[in-house]
Design goal:
- The chain is an alpha/beta fold and 364 residues long.
- 53% of the residues lie in helices and 10% in strands.
- The longest helix is centred in the C-terminal third of the chain and has 25 residues.
- The two termini are 37 Å apart.
Length: 364
């Protein structure tokens, strides 16, 4: 039995365009109960008992008989999008769970062109937002990891997360299907990752991320169907830091297993609310599949991987030094610009936001 109930199983509504949902048409004059039962029967007819699914799909069974079809994907892959679509259409799930948290849910609603532009454009506003959300060190690390994603995006001309958008679209076409966010909140992951590294390790990791420039082809992406491209790129760079692998991959394997098991519970079938085993589709990076399989039948302690240790004294000192340096840069720019221009510079929203970010927190 899992300890704690901190799963990120938030539901997200289906597409707002009814023409895209392809829901079955029902005869007029049905009562609400009759319509529910009719839709339930339509879905049961569509659901394949022994579906022929892609090799990237792993089937797991819960103690109550509920089924999980786990689709392992590459985050930059057209083939993965097809695998997700084929699986959802074949098994007509009760729940779809994706490897996203509420901090990354915006990628479900953006179109490909907007996502490409956003991934490539890492500006001051994004840096400020990351620092406000995660703290100075974790925020900067998040920006550096975004740079890795942006590098792959630029190399391939393809935005990340296409398989999640495909899952979101297909879930909206299945009667009664719920859509859950199954990943650990990204601020917790970054804060735990940063806390696990020494200052020297943080500097080395940041250096490697800053100078990432290896070319990547679409063929490389498809080869990575056995290990997700983004995670493989990260793992190659953080191979010297086992603690970082633990927080970014292994702990999230545990969290994803927990949310998938929460989703794989019996559901009530009309008309008499009888409990029947659920069918769940999970969409995760290929690198998480072995960990989820390994943890599927284990006892899990989610609270243990949700806690964030307070920063060390050295980390607080370094943060203070960095903040002081940034304030000094702004101050020097104002001095060089002169009185009136300096005041105009300080009145800019971006500079105000930066200074607000750097302001020390009030005493407890």
């Amino acid at each position: 039995m899992d300890q704690g109930n901190t799963s990120e199983d938030e539901s997200v509504g289906p597409s707002e365009d009814p023409s895209e949902d392809e829901m079955p048409r029902l005869p007029p004059g049905l009562s609400e109960a009759e319509a529910v039962e009719a839709l339930w029967n339509v879905r049961a007819q569509r659901r394949q008992a022994s579906p022929d699914l892609p090799e990237t799909v792993t089937r797991l069974t819960a103690p109550d008989g509920s089924l999980l079809y786990l689709v392992g994907t590459a985050h930059f892959s057209d083939s993965s999008k097809k695998d997700v679509s084929m699986t959802i259409r074949a098994v007509q799930p009760d729940v779809v769970v994706v490897e996203l948290c509420q901090y990354r849910v915006s990628m479900l609603k953006m179109d490909e062109i907007t996502l490409l532009r956003e991934a490539k454009d890492i500006n001051l506003e994004k840096v400020q937002q990351a620092i406000k959300q995660n703290g100075l060190m974790s925020g900067l690390m998040q920006i550096l990891l975004l740079k890795v994603s942006a590098h792959i995006t630029e190399q391939l001309g393809m935005a990340p997360g296409g398989e999640f958008r495909e899952a979101f679209k297909e879930a909206g076409r299945v009667p009664f299907c719920k859509f859950h966010l199954g990943d650990r909140p990204i601020p917790v992951t970054f804060k735990r990752a940063i806390a696990a590294l020494s200052m020297w390790q943080k500097a080395r990791l940041a250096w490697g991320l800053c100078f990432l420039s290896d070319p990547i082809s679409k063929e490389d992406v498809e080869k990575c169907k056995q290990k997700d491209l983004l995670e493989q790129t990260m793992l190659e760079m953080i191979g010297e830091f086992p603690a970082l692998h633990q927080t970014i991959v292994a702990e999230r394997d545990i969290y994803l297993t927990h949310t998938l098991r929460q989703a794989a519970r019996c559901v009530e079938a009309p008309p008499n609310a009888q409990k029947v085993p659920a069918v769940v589709v999970g969409v995760v990076g290929m690198g998480h599949v072995p960990g989820i399989e390994k943890n599927w039948e284990k006892q899990l302690n989610i609270q243990e991987i949700m806690s964030v240790a307070p920063p060390s004294r050295l980390s607080r000192v370094m943060c203070t030094v960095l903040k002081g340096a940034m304030i000094g840069v702004v101050g020097y720019a104002c001095y060089r610009a002169g009185g009136s221009v300096g005041r105009a510079l300080l009145s800019l929203p971006s500079v105000k936001s930066l200074l607000e970010t750097l302001r020390p927190p009030p005493p407890a």
